[in-house]
Design goal:
The strands form 2 sheets. This protein has a 5-stranded mixed beta sheet. The chain has a two-stranded antiparallel ribbon with strand order 6-7. A hairpin with a 2-residue loop joins β2 and β3. With 235 residues, it is of the alpha+beta class. It contains 8 helices and 7 strands, in the order βααββαβαβαββααα.
């Protein structure tokens, strides 16, 4: 048993992708996903990782260096994933786990629960991280209200990443095979994309107004945007 940071991330719309693809198309997409994950882990320096279908498991030591490596991996999975029309959602937890042929532990369960509750393209962390002070930054972790399917609204660390504009985001989502050719976007997918774009706008305000990334400037993401727009309107 060891203590560290653990990431669980998977591809949104994976079942729909399978249903909407031929065997040849799906095999090609899976090969592309595996290559992307392997390249991202190598580039970020994360040695402990495994893949089960579309789900990525990755672990790093309980150090600032370890946490930064996992954040780098998360940013790559989100940005490179979306570039290749893989919409990634994930959770990062800190705690105990055993890594091996069979991996298990509290951190894995917590990361999985956090991942499955979210409703966007993004990666959120547990509310309390031992090295959070060293990890806050406009291009690292920011405090945000990650959109959840249920439960209480609370600020927690979220991985900041380069989110494309609405036109590009929707176009990449349409190419993922999670949306069937000729069909309109379903509300569940539309809500995930909308939540992702709201975070993009929040990051823009955070950087333009030079706001503290360790604090959530709320009480709702839309409130921060609204106040900034009002300030600019009456300047």
């Amino acid at each position: 048993m060891e203590t560290g940071y653990f990431l669980v991330a998977d591809v949104l719309g994976f079942s729909a992708m399978l249903a909407n693809s031929s065997h040849t198309e799906f095999d090609a997409r899976m090969s592309q996903w595996v290559e992307l994950v392997e390249a991202a882990t190598k580039k970020s320096g994360v040695d402990k990782f495994s893949l089960f279908s579309d789900t990525v498991f990755a672990a790093v030591p309980s150090t600032v260096e370890g946490a930064n490596a996992l954040i780098n991996l998360s940013r790559l999975l989100l940005s490179e994933g979306l570039t290749n029309s893989f919409m990634v959602r994930g959770g990062i937890a800190h705690g105990t786990f055993t890594w091996g042929r069979v991996s298990y532990g509290r951190a894995i369960i917590d990361a999985h629960k956090l991942e499955s509750r979210q409703n966007w393209v993004g990666i959120a962390c547990q509310g309390k991280l031992p090295h959070a002070v060293e990890l806050w930054g406009a291009n690292r972790l920011v405090c945000y209200l990650p959109p959840m399917k249920s439960g209480l609204m609370q600020g927690q660390p979220v991985v900041s990443w380069d989110i494309p504009d609405a036109t590009e985001l929707i176009a990449l989502a349409m190419k993922s095979n999670a949306v069937k050719d000729g069909e309109a976007i379903a509300w569940d997918v539309g809500e995930q994309l909308n939540n992702t774009l709201l975070f993009r706008s929040y990051l823009y305000v955070l950087q333009k107004e030079n706001l503290d990334p360790s604090l959530f400037h709320g009480p709702l993401p839309s409130q921060a945007l609204h106040e900034v727009l009002l300030k600019r309107a009456y300047r």
